[in-house]
């Protein structure tokens, strides 16, 4: 307890606090003491969840769930952080999972399509019966890896490909795979490092990629499973259909961790609910009014990031919790259309 108080006192001196620090300071001393005495079925503690925030005072969130039970057992901290970050009142929220009908996602006109360079959809899932990555033992890491490899034998023909264990990939191949965004990066993130996400690295980590390199699964990177569907075109319906078909197939073999209010649970409370992230790279022709563009994107619940590469922007969804997967995809796609149309009309 003394160690936490000392670190927290130091962090109070900084101008910027993480959401974890912000709501930790709201807790009464008796509440903190009570939280510190609790343990989950996987022996996860309150300190396990907050240690990254204690070490990284300038992080956005800093809170990590060592296992799914942490979201309930330590809810006096997790829930305020989640509500602040996701801007959703989860006290009355009932999570609804719905991939919807991909046929209802319409292609954009050819004029709009040519400004879309690539689309990448990523959805993370955690397998029931295991703790999150920071608490996985070597045996559990290897068990998940092997179970996933076995399950991949039953996926559809167009999704089949090759699984490669991280420890067996040559250095030159690692570089090539990362350059093509097929493989996750080196374990250098300080937030994840302090949260113990890199324990036993690279044991049990790996990547599966199909022959067309448009469907990928990361195993035990940050979460147990990261499903990725991508393409260097604007065919959103095809990209979306591919990932939901793969997830539905794997879900027949594994049960995913889920909460009635919070949706699908993962290591970071930032990536819960649908755990859906869409990245669309768009080339915009007119960026003279960049500040106005940023504000326009905010109204559409879209985050815009300048890649500093010849007017190319990375557009991604802000919302992950409080709506269904299909609703998020539709809103994102409609927003992209409005952004490109506005850009064209500037001509």
TrEMBL record:
Give residue ranges for domain Phosphagen kinase N-terminal: 5-87
Keywords in alphabetical order: ATP-binding, Kinase, Nucleotide-binding, Transferase
The record's Gene Ontology biological-process terms are:
phosphocreatine biosynthetic process
Cross-referenced InterPro entries: ATP-guanido_PTrfase (IPR000749), ATP-guanido_PTrfase_cat (IPR022414), ATP-guanido_PTrfase_N (IPR022413), ATP-guanido_PTrfase_N_sf (IPR036802), Gln_synth/guanido_kin_cat_dom (IPR014746)
Domain annotation Phosphagen kinase C-terminal: ranges: 115-346
Example GO CC term: the record gives: extracellular space
Database matches in PROSITE patterns: PHOSPHAGEN_KINASE_C, PHOSPHAGEN_KINASE_N
The superkingdom of the source organism is Eukaryota
Gene Ontology molecular function terms on file: ATP binding; creatine kinase activity
Q: Which amino acid positions bind ATP, per UniProt?
A: 118-122, 277-281, 305-310
Q: Which family does the UniProt entry place this protein in?
A: Belongs to the ATP:guanido phosphotransferase family.
Q: Which PANTHER family match?
A: ARGININE KINASE 1-RELATED, ARGININE OR CREATINE KINASE
State what protein this is by name. Answer: Arginine kinase
């Amino acid at each position: 307890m003394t160690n936490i108080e000392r670190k927290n006192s130091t962090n109070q001196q900084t101008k910027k606090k993480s959401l974890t620090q912000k709501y930790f300071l709201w807790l009464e001393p008796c509440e903190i003491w009570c939280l510190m005495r609790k343990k989950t079925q996987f022996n996860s503690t309150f300190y396990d969840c907050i240690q990254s925030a204690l070490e990284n005072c300038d992080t956005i969130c800093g809170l990590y769930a060592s296992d799914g039970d942490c979201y309930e057992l330590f809810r006096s901290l997790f829930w305020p952080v989640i509500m602040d970050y996701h801007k959703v009142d989860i006290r009355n929220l009932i999570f609804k999972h719905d991939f919807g009908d991909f046929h209802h996602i319409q292609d954009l006109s050819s004029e709009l399509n040519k400004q879309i360079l690539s689309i990448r959809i990523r959805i993370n899932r955690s397998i029931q019966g295991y703790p999150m990555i920071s608490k996985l033992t070597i045996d559990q890491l290897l068990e998940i890896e092997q179970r996933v490899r076995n399950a991949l034998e039953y996926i559809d023909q167009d999704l089949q490909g090759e699984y490669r264990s991280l420890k067996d990939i040559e250095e030159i191949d690692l570089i090539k795979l990362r350059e093509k965004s097929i493989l996750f990066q080196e374990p250098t993130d300080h937030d994840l490092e302090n949260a113990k996400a890199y324990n036993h690295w690279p044991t049990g980590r790996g990547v599966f990629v199909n022959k067309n390199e448009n469907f990928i699964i990361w195993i035990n990177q940050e979460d147990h499973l990261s499903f990725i569907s991508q393409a260097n075109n604007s065919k959103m319906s095809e990209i979306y259909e591919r990932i939901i078909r793969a997830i539905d197939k794997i879900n027949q073999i594994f049960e995913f961790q889920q909460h009635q209010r919070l949706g699908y649970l993962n290591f970071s409370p930032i990536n819960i609910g649908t755990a859906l992230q869409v990245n669309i790279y768009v080339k915009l022709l007119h960026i003279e009014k960049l500040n106005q563009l940023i504000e326009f994107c905010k109204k559409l619940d879209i985050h815009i990031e300048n890649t500093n590469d010849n007017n190319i922007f990375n557009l991604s969804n802000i919302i992950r919790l409080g709506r269904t997967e299909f609703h998020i995809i539709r809103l994102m796609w409609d927003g992209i259309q409005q952004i490109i149309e506005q850009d064209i009309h500037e001509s």
